Amino acid sequence: MIERYRQELEELRQRGMLRRLTPLAARHGCRSELGGREMLNLSSNDYLGLGGDRDLLNRFYEGLGQEGCAERYALGTASSRLLSGDTHTAHRLEERLAEAFGRESCLLFNSGYHANIGILPALFGRGDAIFSDKLNHASIVDGMRLSTAEHRRYRHLDYDQLDLMLTRERQRYRQAVIVSESVFSMDGDVADLRRLVDLKRRHNCLLYLDEAHAVGVYGKRGLGQAEAQERLAEVDLLVGTFGKAWASVGAFVLLHEVLRDYLLNHSRSLIFTTALPPVVLSWNLYILEQLASFAPRREKLTMLSSRLRRRLSAQGLCPPGDTNILPVMIGTAEKAVRMAEEMRRLGYLVLPIRPPTVPEGTCRFRLSLTAAMNEGELDLLTDALHGLLSATTPGGGALS
Ligand SMILES: Cc1ncc(COP(=O)(O)O)c(C=O)c1O
Q: What angle do CA 327, 253, 197 make, to 5 degrees?
């Protein structure tokens, strides 16, 4: 029986599709140690550089050992939130998030994955339809699969096609929801929220926006693309995660109070799992309270990203855009694996992005910048990438 799985793994390896774990040691700012070598980590979602900020971490733990610290630093709740795992910190975090986003209420989930697979099937079922961008994250795809609603997928960012689909099909369904990421995690491009809000209004739909890669990073107060594009009040369900810019774990959804109560009663990934530990909730709250003050980090990140993107675009290596996620197209999985190994040899922690994370034939490097990096490091990276790609591509330069 084991032989069958061994063979399938071997086939994956031969096609350059085998996934392996990569344990990292000591972390200094945006640098990580792999196999005893320090590398610039270009694969982390610690966008604001909070995870590697020792001062911030030390300030968070200042109260450790003091009276009543268990409530703040405990490592587990030993129960679902619906049983004895609920805490005042969880409620405080939800209240502060709702206040910050100017919304009626908020509900926490254990991760963005839990949120997407827990919300979509709970709220949308038989007789409903989910209209989803083709490049939405796997957790949204899984949420749709778990839902008994019908799924319709529109071409990536093609709102004319979505408009046409809604014009033709909307009236067949009791309820319809448009689901999109705001910053697309593997492409680094951004949804046009003005158009999405217009479509949801004209076709009487709800708008579900996954801001996993945007909260903390965009908007004056760091609330994400809905803030930056001035659409905060018009997104019906706004999902954010703590696993990226917060350098932590967990997720939240901002929504109507009735929907919050409904999810508490129907969302299986919320009901049937142990609640987030107090130490994580406290950190998430601690970062939320400082979010507006991280504006200089956001500005630096924007500056670094625009600069690197300009340089890579000039060499034909990266599509235009203005987020801190820069895809560099490679092509086949084997090539992406080989070239990522070479990048690591040069001191850059780059991992190949392959199907099913991205469509077949579009394997890539996903360069993920953080505010802890500096211009000099990224200039050297441009040179390294250019050198590597020129050496491996006939005629040099662009691979996409
Ligand atoms: C758009 C999007 N949504 C949700 C998730 C899942 O979030 P989490 O890592 O908190 O489970 C991710 C993770 O990469 C993501 O890119």
A: 70
Cα–ligand 1 centroid distance for 139 (angstroms): 7
The Å distance, Cα 252 to ligand 1 centre, comes to 12
- Is residue 213 part of the annotated active site? The answer reads yes
Percent of the chain with pLDDT over 90: 84
Q: Give the CATH number of domain 69-292; options: 1.10.357.10, 3.30.930.10, 3.40.640.10, 1.10.10.10.
A: 3.40.640.10
Cβ of 248 less than 6 Å from ligand 1: no
Claim: this prediction has a pTM higher than 0.90: yes
Question: Do residues 328 and 365 touch, judged by C-beta distance below 8 A?
Answer: yes
Whether 111 is in the pocket of ligand 1, judged by its Cβ within 6 Å, is yes
Is residue 244 in contact with ligand 1, taking CB distance under 6 Å?
Answer: no
pLDDT digits (tens, 9 = 90+) for 113-135: 999 999 999 999 999 999 999 99
Segment 253-286, tens digit of pLDDT: 999 999 999 999 999 999 999 999 999 999 999 9
Q: What distance in Å separates the CA atoms of residue 227 and residue 209, rounded to the nearest whole number?
A: 12
**Does 142 sit in the ligand 1 pocket, CB within 6 Å?**
no
Spot the catalytic one: 44, 45, 111, 248.
45
**CATH H-level superfamily of 15-44+325-368+370-392:** Aspartate Aminotransferase, domain 1 (3.90.1150.10)
Instruction: Tell me which residue has its CA closest to atom 4 in ligand 1.
Output: 112
Q: Where are the domains of the chain?
A: 15-44+325-368+370-392, 69-292
